[in-house]
Predict the structure.
Amino acid sequence: MSFRKIMTFVPMCLLLAMPMAMAAQTASPAPTSGTKVHGTITDPDGELIPGATISLTPAKGPAKTVQSGSDGTYSVTVPPGSYTLVVSMKGFASYSAQNMKVPAVPSTTVDAKLKIGTTDEVINVDASASQLSVDPDNNASSTIITGDALAQRAGRPGCRA
């Protein structure tokens, strides 16, 4: 092949390959169904608890059970709905949150602080009593402080910057 033919052939190959390369980069991963429930398991002093058993049980169906990692964190993906969360670890009282609502969002955080005791003791938390709304239409009592307002408050006594 002559140099001129090579110089014409190579750019054409690159132009033909470019759309395929761009499509491969923009392809999104397959969507997963469910909400990622994750959190940290700690003791009364805030120390991490590795190896705790975390169970999320829906009103109907089998429980999903995972262990907290060496950093005291856990993660499990479940369909949105109402669950009972139970966290247990030898030497600690079990933590139980009943009627816990898992919203239809990508992820939600549920931390648990275990108390010293035996596993046959259960600390119950009624999750339905304190629901946090993430719907912007329902956050009428929220306050947004912009940079200017924050700068004005910085010099006032009792305000921390």
